[in-house]
Design goal:
Elements: E1 2-3, E2 9-16, H1 23-38, E3 42-48, E4 61-66, E5 69-74, E6 76-79, H2 85-89, H3 109-123, H4 126-140, H5 146-153, H6 157-160, H7 163-183, H8 185-209, H9 214-221, H10 226-235, H11 242-246
């Protein structure tokens, strides 16, 4: 991000969801490359999105000694799960999706969601609202299971108005009803929820990796375990492709 100060400078934001002992060294490399490309002072800021991303080597400072000199690199370090939700709820609109994964008790997450919705309704157009809710959906997957996230966001108007989201829910309900007639209402409901979860994974993955191959789609649709689907959802952040996700 270019900051139009006097003189101008660049803010390099790095988001991390999983542990990487080489991260501090990579930050130094990125900082130098960005500075070389744009020839502007560059501040690197690392946002760790969950405790699983933390590492003892991440201190806000990285350096090493060399014969006749040394290298010292400082960066901003922010552990999102230790921050107050107020920081995100009262900041720029783009920071709102971080509020549910901040230092908020699980019992207060619905309250945070309600405050987010109220602010977005006042300040954002429909397209922006839906984009930020999708970001919220993805980030909440770092802390909650896919089905739990769906329940927490079910009452959000912008999600309810999304034709894609509604199609997933409707198809899940339809599948549940069909299965309910054959195997009983509870089993049918479980199947419907599994179907909706699979479709959510395919939708989000398509946005990140592109359309899935027939083999990938068959693999995901063949899963019959909520735990297995939750594990896929968690790996979705770290994977760089469909093949890596299901490997």
């Amino acid at each position: 991000l270019r900051v139009e100060a006097d003189p101008p400078w660049l803010l390099h934001l790095e988001f991390q969801a999983s542990r990487d002992p080489t991260l501090a060294r990579r930050l130094l490399r990125y900082n130098v490359l960005i500075h070389e490309r744009h020839r502007l002072p560059t501040l690197s800021a690392l946002l760790l999105l969950r405790p699983q991303a933390d590492d003892p080597t991440l201190t806000g400072r990285y350096g090493y000694e060399a014969p006749g000199g040394s290298v010292a690199f400082e960066y901003r370090l922010l552990k999102v799960w230790e921050t107050s939700p107020e920081e995100w709820l009262t900041g720029g609109l783009g920071t709102l999706p971080l509020a549910p994964v901040s230092a908020v008790a699980e019992g207060r997450v619905p309250e945070v969601i309600a405050r987010m919705e109220a602010r977005l309704l006042r300040e954002a157009e429909t397209e922006v609202q839906q984009a930020l809710w999708i970001s919220t959906f993805l980030l909440m997957g770092l802390r909650f299971g896919v089905q739990e996230v769906g329940k927490l966001l079910r009452g959000v108007n912008a999600m309810q108005e999304s034709t894609t989201y509604q199609a997933i829910l409707e198809e899940g309900r339809r599948k549940g009803e069909l299965e309910g007639r054959r195997k009983g209402e509870l089993e049918g409901r479980r199947k419907g929820e599994l179907y909706a979860t699979k479709q959510s994974l395919l939708l989000i993955g398509s946005g990140k990796f592109g359309p899935p191959s027939a083999a990938v789609r068959a693999h995901i649709e063949g899963l019959d375990s909520p735990e297995g689907l939750d594990a896929l959802a968690e790996r979705l952040w770290r994977a760089a492709s469909w093949d890596e996700l299901i490997a």
